[in-house]
Amino acid sequence: MKPVSLIQFLIEERRAGHINAELSLLIEVVARACKRIAVATGKGALGGVLGAAGTDNIQGEAQKKLDVISNEILLEANAWGGHLAACASEEMEDPQPIPDGYPRGQHLLLFDPLDGSSNIDVNISVGTIFSVLRCPDGVTEPVAEHFLQPGTTQLAAGYVVYGPSTLLVLTFGHGTHEFTLDREIGSFILSRRDIRIPAATGEFAINMSNQRHWEAPMQRYIGELLAGGDGPRGRDFNMRWVASMVADVHRIVTRGGVFFYPLDAKIRSKGGKLRLMYEANPMAFIVEQAGGAASTGRERIMELQPTGLHQRVPVFLGSKDEVELATHYHVEADGAQG
Ligand code: P6P
Asked: Quick check: 154 and 285 in contact, CB under 8 A?
């Protein structure tokens, strides 16, 4: 079968009425920027891009050089095309308006430019996560409040995983699709159309070192998985934890599984570990469009009304049956507490 490039796929999506020309351009620009990020991360020690940048981000986290480089690549790529009204990034406290002198578009772009960057120095897969919203009508100078839209309003979401191969996974709300970067011609080529995540799975992903801090229903749910065939689930389960959300989620998108970053006593005051606007929401959109589910353990992630640009939430996502069971345990426990 003749390979379908990202450009061709975007044209198909425009003809189907799923996206407009401006959103199509936005995705092309983001994909091109991510090819540049792939080159930068691929240089490793030879590119002088490893190690700490010597600065902290809004989250108070020490930035890696590649965090800063990736953020700059995405900002520069999106400044001049006329497809955006503003960008928001994990690496910046406030949204970045499109520079004066350039035309502005109708979209808002949010991204984690290089998620999992703590893995860069040990050569483990990292990735870029992005989400696209519509800029509210009549708003010419978007500020943070204009980004605070529920995940259900997303026009597009995607991630690029920089691994043995560079893959783009993308949704516009009409299925989830995967593109593989052909490094010889520099094009993303459609490699999986209409991905489906199996509802049942035997594989879970969680950072077990936090177990003593979890809430009781999380202890119960994971305890049942660990009990395996002799326990209430009547089967054995396998565990994976890359500690790079994009890599863990891509495994689930590829073969099923369930990912948890639950609330725990250490992070309760922050509301969770992962960020709603540019990690949980885009990943939830991608996973739901592939037939999976995504909750906070109490409610659907994409229905949350955001209260802050860098708001954190608990994340349960992946194979529907397991997300629903773990969520049921939490809702049941809350009900019992009255
Ligand atoms: P922990 C990476 O720092 C990240 O934001 C996600 O990519 C990843 O899933 C999680 O944090 C890992 O957290 O506590 O296991 O280091």
From this structure: yes
Using an 8 Å Cβ cutoff, are 283 and 260 in contact? Answer: no
Polymer length of the chain: 338
| Whole-number pLDDT of residue 75 | 96
Distance 154 CA to ligand 1 centre (A): 23
Q: What is the mean pLDDT of residues 285-300?
A: 98
pLDDT tens-place string over residues 203-260: 999 999 999 999 999 999 999 999 999 999 999 999 999 999 999 999 999 999 999 9
Domain spans of the chain?
6-192, 203-337
Q: Do domains 6-192 and 203-337 have the same CATH topology?
A: no
Distance from the alpha carbon of residue 273 to the mean position of ligand 1, in angstroms: 8
**The pTM is what?**
0.97
Looking at ligand 1, which residue's alpha carbon is closest to its atom 15? 243
Pick the residue whose CA is nearest to atom 1 on ligand 1.
243
- Return the percentage of the chain with pLDDT > 90, whole number: 88
Instruction: Identify which of 139, 149, 125, 128 has the alpha carbon closest to the alpha carbon of residue 251.
Output: 125
- In this structure, the residue with its CA closest to atom 3 of ligand 1 is 116
Choose which residue among 61, 90, 115 to substitute to test ligand 1 binding: the one with the highest number of ligand atoms within 8 A of its C-beta. Answer: 115
CATH architecture designation of domain 6-192: 2-Layer Sandwich (3.30)
Question: What's the pLDDT score for residue 117?
Answer: 82
Which amino acid makes up residue 198? Answer: P
Looking at residue 118, what is its pLDDT? Answer: 83
207 CB within 6 A, ligand 1? yes
Helix H, strand E, coil C: the string for 152-179 is HHCCEEEEEEECCCEEEEEECCCCEEEE
Q: Which of 330, 332, 325, 333 is nearest to 201 (CA)?
A: 325
DSSP 8-class letter at 243: S
